[in-house]
Amino acid sequence: MGQRQGSASGLRQAEAIIVERYPQLLRLAYLVLPPRLDRHTRLLRAHRAVQHSLRAAGRRARQGGDPLAAVRAEVVRHAAGRPRGPLPPWVWGLRMWPSAEGLDEAARGLAGLTPYARAASVLCRFDGLDEDAAAGVLEQAGAGDPAAEVRAARAAGAGPGAVGPAADVHTRPTDLLLRRTRVRTAWGVAAVLLLAAGLTRATAAGPDPGLRVTYAGSPSARAALDPARLVRVPAQAWADTGRVDFTAWPARGPRTGDRALLARALRAWAAPASGAAVSVTVAPSASAEPPEHAPQLLFAGDAGPGTAVVVYHDADRIVRYTEQGGRHSLDIARTDDANVTTAASVTLTRDGTTARRLLAPWIATAGVRDLTAPSAAVRPLPIGPDGTVATELPRETRGEGCGPRPVLELASSPRIVEKHAFLLADLGGLLPVHLTYTPPVEGADTPPARQPREATGPAALARWAQEACTLGEVDGRSVRAVNLWDFAVTDLPETPGRAVWSCTRATHWTGRGDVRIRLRPPAGPSLTVAQARSTAACGRFGQHILAATVWRAPSGHGYQLAAGSREVAEITATGSLNSRTPGRTLTVPAPPAPAPPATLTATLHSGAVITALDARGGGRD
């Protein structure tokens, strides 16, 4: 009896903590989960991690110790481990809606850490634990080296110092245990009913059901397949909203009232393997799960002879359904944190050298320019009454050079922003990629940071013309923006003119970034110096950069070159070289072969030390 009472007491303690601190625990789980998941999937898994922690945390609380630490440890253990089983079709128990901006900004800052290091960062920075207490929670959660995870979190503290409330409570059940018992009973009854209903519908379907599908999800999920429930935004909503993204797009196209077409698109999305063959293409890290609620209709129409297209928006996803010549296809891409530029266009079709695109309702004018010809004028494009345009696609060329690189130049309506034009490049994805440029900073010792700007000015176009061919290296299915940052300019020995050090950062919809450092001499092609994947370098949370390479002059002599970003005060070479140079650039004779490469570090004005970027990204002491 005493053991049973102790078990109940431990559960009650854990239940009280979960109910009282649900927003904080949800935030912890959300930020520990893999950043590659889309926001919808991540949120559902965060709810599940918190609610599944109840009984294990209750057992830990019964054994003594801090009940809150036990609950936190179980949440981390569930979120950091491999997910078990499919997602529930709806969220049971406590339901919450997180503050997307704060959570996702924090998630991007933690993307390069392990799950346990992400947990340590949340526990210390947001929940107020000291490092020893955070390490204790990680130890209970199963971390192999809790102290090392805490150190890693501390070393990567370049994210925002704090975020707003992670979630607002919609309901707080007074008896979570009873609710869980009722849920288990409800699932058993629902399974029997769904099986019987499925057998009945399968028998009555007839010999040719086509895309007919029995979707055994929640009532709201089944209702999401009803064309009558689709979300349709008013035509002028974009001009009077503080959120200019896909949620402000109205439904356009001549077939928005074609219920049969809309229903076929929804059923293909719900069960693409059912009935008629549906070819499904899912962008990296995107979720192919059916919608849980009625999606937003963006377009339905004929995009060419015998080609019908439907475009839906669902939370952080764009879904395009296409019927062409008896073939059905479904394309799904992520749209996390889309904005006035990255939500400006969706590709409807590609045919040979031409693409038909649907533009955002806030686009006032459209044109096409050749990125390899910066002095050439923009050729205007007529925008159809349904918001569509036809544009050229980059042509494949053989031999040297990459040929013309057509890109869209769009201008926003002055009703939302004045004198705003920007470039979008088709790199093979459902959504085009936003191109930006950050010019070099010269003069002052510690000039203010420069933010990426639109790549439509003369200097930006001239630099992008030199790097246009490198866009072929970018995976347009998962990348939303590419920024070309000229972070340093240096004189080359024995060579007239100046060379430019640049970092090209391809930012994915998940928030991760891939970078490539290049040195471009006054004449000739660029030299790739370093590259790194899934790094904060050259982004908002990685503005301090050092790059180095050995460059060979026309005379054949080798020189060790290095350059840093604006905060670099001194560059040091050790190992096979011994040199210390004040300022942001270093040029010294390279050691003769076969000497090993020198080690390059830079001291910032703050006193921090960074290492030269290599294939693993930058470092910091």
Task: Fill in the keyword field for this structure.
five-stranded mixed β-sheet, ten-stranded mixed β-sheet, 621 residues, disordered C terminus, disordered N terminus, alpha+beta
Descriptive notes:
Helix content is 27%, strand content 29%. The longest helix has 29 residues, at 176-204. The protein is α+β, with helices and mostly antiparallel strands and 621 residues long.
Please render the helix and strand layout as text:
Layout lengths: L1 H19 L1 H11 L6 H14 L1 H9 L4 H14 L15 E3 L1 H10 L5 H11 L5 H11 L4 H10 L11 E3 L6 H29 L14 H5 L35 H12 L7 E5 L13 E9 L2 E8 L2 E8 L2 E8 L10 E7 L2 E6 L3 E8 L8 E3 L6 E5 L13 E7 L8 E5 L7 E6 L14 E2 L3 H10 L11 E13 L6 E11 L4 E8 L6 E6 L13 E7 L5 E7 L3 E7 L4 E4 L2 E5 L9 E6 L4 E6 L2 E4 L1
Parallel strand pairs: 3-7, 15-17
Antiparallel strand pairs: 1-2, 4-5, 5-6, 6-7, 8-9, 9-12, 10-11, 10-13, 13-14, 14-15, 15-16, 17-18, 18-19, 19-20, 21-22, 22-25, 23-24, 23-26, 26-27, 27-28
